[in-house]
Amino acid sequence: MNSEQEFISGTKWKTREIEESDVITEELHNLIVWNDDVNTFDWVIESLVDVCGHEAIQAEQCALIIHHKGKCGVKKGSFDELRPQAEALINRSIQATIDY
């Protein structure tokens, strides 16, 4: 605990205790898969299930969003967590990026 002095009035000061707590904040990133004219729906769905751990219905919905919107954020997490997944998708010829 730290003390902080607070000016009350005139020359009078009040001391109050401040609690410190360590807060670790980690910025979350998005793994984004982009639309292309090469990969099939089935391949993208299979890849999202295998690489990202999606359920089949979730992967199917993401594939539809990718097709209609041009991209989809398929997973959130730390950069270190998402990087191997992005690389695995890229190795499967699926365009993937991590946003900041």
Q: Explain this structure to me?
A:
By secondary structure, the protein is an alpha+beta fold. It has a single domain, classed as Ribosomal protein L7/L12, C-terminal domain/Adaptor protein ClpS (Ribosomal Protein L30, Chain: A). It is built from three helices and five strands; from the N terminus they run βββααβαβ. The protein has a three-stranded antiparallel beta sheet. A two-stranded antiparallel ribbon has the order 1-2. Helix 1 (41-52) packs across helix 2. Mean pLDDT is 86; it is low at 1-7.
N-to-C order of helices and strands: EEEHHEHE
CATH class: Alpha Beta
The oligomeric state of the chains shown is single chain
Total beta strands: 5
Q: Radius of gyration in whole Å, from Cα?
A: 23 Å
CATH superfamily: Ribosomal protein L7/L12, C-terminal domain/Adaptor protein ClpS
Low-confidence runs: 1-7
**Physical arrangement of strands within the biggest beta sheet:** 4-3-5
Supply the number of structural domains.
1
Cα distance, first to last residue? 35 Å
How much β-strand is present in the residues? 25-35%
What profile does the largest beta sheet have? Answer: 3 strands, antiparallel
Identify the overall geometry.
elongated
Q: Structural class, please?
A: alpha+beta
Approximate helicity band: 25-40%
CATH architectural label: 2-Layer Sandwich
- Overall average residue pLDDT: 86
The number of helical segments is 3
The CATH topology is: Ribosomal Protein L30, Chain: A
